[in-house]
Each structure stands twice: as structure tokens, then as C-alpha cells.
């Protein structure tokens, strides 16, 4: 049975609030993974609440570093508990997936750099995401075609990939929308966008008072209809097909299948 450890990257208060609403990051990932592999076993860790140790990773086949919604960037001192957890994840040699903030945390831990997006926050949708030559043949992007759009909400971006990193996808807003890194035993796949959620969930973050993304990006009413209304999708520059469940979660399906395959090789 495949076992995944999901590391909650948000601070306890924020994570608790979202969990009560059914939209905490681990819940979003668990729904997708359980649909792909019903027998999957999922554990959740919260490094801001309890410092993680090597023992927390025992028996784990893959690790997810989630997105977050706190004010501090991944390279801030306040993010040290999450970076420490990510360092331990890489030490296991198991596949690690980082999404949004998780991508940025992994980038810092592996020696890369991040900074505030030069074009400002990308909120609502990452439009027209193009695959690189390496992305077109990488297992994470299997089933993806260039020019797709997907939910997103980020303030920072990767400005320098770690050594051993390959850019797999980009768009007009951010030069690194997806990357993969092989370095000193680390096996890292990272996404700047959010395949685990629909645009309507991003809409909740945008209208959440006090959120980093409050009233920024695509209009809430458009995010609530873009999944089903071709006219809205066309106006925004995407397609309703982008948000069909099997399409928008493609990278997560590919990753959990990859994790199972790697676990079988080392069994």
C-alpha cells in the first residue's frame, strides 16, 4: 500500500481555519490521491505545531510539501520549521512533491533562489502554461499539452533553480511554473500552480478578508463560473476543458503513480 506524508505548510491558525471549511491543503491533496488510488494511506504533519524528526518519515513512500497562505516568504526566518521538514524529506531519498509555497521551500532547501514576482501576484489562473522541451518528455507532465491553464495563487516565484534542476513549464507571468530536481539523492518535482484545487476554491481565498490574495487577480465571479461556462473561459483565455477533474489533476496522478513505482523498485 502506498503511503504519503503531507506536510502542512500553513501556520496552525490558518490551517485550522481552512480545515474547518474543508479546504485545508492536506484535505485538497487527500481527495485527489484517494480518487486515484483508493487504497492509499495518508498521514499529515504540521511542523509549525510539532518539530519533525526522521522518525516521522518512517515507512513513507512519498512526501508532499503543500502551499501556504502566510505573510512570510519561504526564505524568511519564520519559515524555518517548514524548511527543516523539507530537508528531512530530501534526506529520505523518497520522491518529494512541492506545490506553490512547497515549490519555493524546496527551491531554497536545494540551494536555489526565490523573490517576489516581478509582474506582481499571479492569482486566480495561471494562463497559457507552456511545456519546455524537457517538460514534454518528463513523467510529471505526461498527458499535458502546451498552452493549458490551471488554478494558481502566488506572490513569489523561483528566480534561480537549484543545481540539477530542469524547468518543465513556464508562462508569460513566471519563468518557472514547473520544475524537477535531481541532486545529492533528492528527487523533487515542483509546481508553482495548484492542480489539487479548482478555480472556485481559489475564489474563496481571494474573497477571504485578510488573505494575501484578497481582492487580487481574476474576478471572483469569473472563477466561480470558468469551469462550466465556455464564454467566461474564452474571455479569460482558457477552456472549460482545462478544469475537467482528470485534466487539472494530471500532475498529481502522475506523481502518485511515480511514487508507487519507485516504492516497488526499492521493496
From TrEMBL:
InterPro entries, A to Z: ChyE-like (IPR044992), Class_I_gatase-like (IPR029062), GATASE (IPR017926)
Entry keyword Glycoprotein: no
Alphabetic keyword roster: Ligase
GO cellular component terms, A-Z: cytosol
Glutamine amidotransferase domain boundaries: 53-202
Gene3D superfamilies reported for this sequence: 3.40.50.880
PROSITE patterns on file: GATASE_TYPE_1
GO MF terms held by the record: GMP synthase (glutamine-hydrolyzing) activity
E.C. code: 6.3.5.2
Enzyme class: ligase
Protein name: GMP synthase-Glutamine amidotransferase domain protein
Amino acid at each position: 500500500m502506498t503511503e504519503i506524508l503531507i506536510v502542512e505548510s500553513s501556520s496552525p491558525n490558518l490551517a485550522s481555519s481552512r480545515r474547518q471549511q474543508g479546504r485545508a491543503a492536506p484535505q485538497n491533496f487527500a481527495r485527489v490521491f484517494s480518487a486515484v488510488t483508493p487504497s492509499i494511506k495518508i498521514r499529515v504533519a504540521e511542523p509549525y505545531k510539532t518539530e519533525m524528526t526522521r522518525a516521522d518519515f518512517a515507512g513513507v513512500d512519498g512526501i508532499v510539501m503543500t502551499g501556504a497562505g502566510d505573510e512570510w516568504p519561504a526564505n524568511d526566518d519564520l519559515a524555518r520549521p517548514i524548511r527543516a521538514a523539507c530537508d528531512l524529506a530530501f534526506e529520505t531519498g523518497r520522491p518529494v512533491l512541492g506545490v506553490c509555497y512547497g515549490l519555493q521551500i524546496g527551491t531554497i532547501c536545494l540551494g536555489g533562489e526565490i523573490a517576489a514576482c516581478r509582474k506582481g501576484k499571479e492569482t486566480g489562473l495561471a494562463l497559457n502554461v507552456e511545456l519546455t522541451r524537457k517538460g514534454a518528455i518528463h513523467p510529471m507532465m505526461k498527458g499535458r499539452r502546451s498552452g493549458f491553464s490551471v488554478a494558481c495563487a502566488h506572490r513569489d516565484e523561483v528566480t534561480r533553480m537549484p543545481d540539477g534542476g530542469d524547468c518543465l513549464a513556464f508562462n508569460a507571468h513566471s519563468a518557472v511554473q514547473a520544475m524537477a530536481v535531481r541532486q545529492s539523492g533528492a528527487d523533487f518535482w515542483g509546481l508553482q500552480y495548484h492542480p489539487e484545487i479548482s478555480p472556485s476554491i481559489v475564489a474563496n481565498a481571494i474573497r477571504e478578508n485578510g488573505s494575501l490574495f484578497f481582492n487580487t487577480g481574476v474576478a471572483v465571479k469569473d472563477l466561480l463560473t470558468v469551469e462550466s461556462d465556455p464564454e467566461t473561459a474564452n474571455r479569460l483565455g482558457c477552456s472549460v476543458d482545462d478544469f475537467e477533474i482528470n485534466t487539472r489533476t494530471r500532475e498529481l496522478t502522475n506523481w502518485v503513480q511515480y511514487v508507487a513505482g519507485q516504492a516497488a523498485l526499492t521493496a
